[in-house]
Amino acid sequence: MGANVALGIDIGGSGIKGAPVDLRTGKMTGERLRIETPARSTPKAVAKVVRQIARNFADELPPDSPIGVTIPTVVQHGVVKTAANIDDEWIDAPGQQIIAEAVGRPISLVNDADAAGLAEVRYGAAKGRDGLILVVTLGTGVGVAIVHDGVLIPNAELGHIELDGVDAETRVSAAAREREGLSYPQWAARLQRYFSQVEFLLWPDLFIVGGGVSRKADRFLPLLKLRTPIVPAELRNGAGIAGAALFAAAERNR
Ligand code: BGC
Fold first, then answer.
1. Which CATH number among 3.40.50.1100, 3.40.50.720, 3.40.50.620, 3.30.420.40 corresponds to the domain 2-112+238-253?
2. Closest atom of ligand 1 to CA, residue 73
3. Structure confidence by residue, pLDDT tens digits, 80-92
4. Best mutation site among 17, 69, 73 for ligand 1 pocket (most ligand atoms within 8 Å of CB)
5. Protein residues with CB under 6 Å of any ligand 1 atom
6. Total-model pTM
7. What's 125-234's CATH class?
């Protein structure tokens, strides 16, 4: 029998957040704990914070509950392969093992956008929908999850496609909008180019836009003209935590 609750931990550029998640609803069962990401976000420093969060919830969870952890990098079979917005020491580090050793329990490590994608398809904007769903998170970086008929195709990294001769993420992330002081219409013009290119390549049935800025979706999504329906994420900042928990529970049941 599968677990009903799992711990989800979301490693982000500025904060590391965790909470127990009810796997039937995707909702957190208690208060979320957030700790600042260490200034040098090395594997050792980050693993220490993850341990602190896991310990904090130890009493609230059955002792063998799954623990899922997201990270903003490619994760291939537990090994971190990239480091766009985190310390370079992560590259080729056995991240899953490092964190498991710090926590003292097995954990499942998953790309942050992939976790958000799984959560939106199970609990959020694409709940119960089949077909090809692309979840695009616009934050410090741009993450993309590809989910087909509920099955995740991991590590898509489509935030880094080349657009106008540069890495798209440097022009279309929420961080780029803030850095350059773009108005929503100016930013939407860039998003238009980005989403058009992605739909040209992949022909999804639905785009879901996540990241903190999805709260302001009414300022930019209506400006986009795409053949694919595009909607804001429903779980917002909870998507990483819920997706991490869901991923860990699914790995356990494999
Ligand atoms: C990384 C992805 C990540 C995304 C969102 C990108 O820079 O390459 O792995 O999912 O940022 O954090």
1. 3.30.420.40
2. 9
3. 999 988 999 999 9
4. 73
5. 72-74, 82, 84-85, 111-113, 137, 139, 141-143, 157, 159, 169
6. 0.97
7. alpha beta
